[in-house]
Design goal:
Elements: E1 3-5, E2 17-19, H1 23-34, H2 43-53, H3 58-70, H4 82-91, H5 93-107
Antiparallel strand pairs: 1-2
Length: about 110
Amino acid sequence: MPISTNPASMDGGVLGTHWEITPAWSEILSSVARGERVVAGGLAESLTEDLFYLDEPWQGRFLELVANLATSWKWHGQRPTRDEIAAWLGDDLSLYQYVRLLLRAWWRPRRQ
C-alpha cells in the first residue's frame, strides 16, 4: 500500500502517515469477500499451463509442491489436475505470486 503524507494528520509538528488502498486492492478485497477468484484475466490459467509445460521430473515436482502448499501439506499424493491447479492459483493471490516467482527463478538463465 502506498504511503502518503497527510498535512491534516500533522500533530504538533510531527508528520503523520496516511495509508491509502489502491483501486486494485479494493477490487481484490471485494472479490475475496464475495468468494470469487482473486487472480483475474486468465493469469492463473496461464501459470497453470506453464507448470504443465515443464518436462518430467520437474513438472511432477512443481505440481506436487503447489498441491501441498494449497492444501497445507494435506494433499493425498495423486497428481493434481489442471482444473485443481488453476483453481488454487486463482483463489490464492499469495500462492499465485509464490509459484510465479519460483517458476521464473527456475527458467532464469544460469550464469556461467
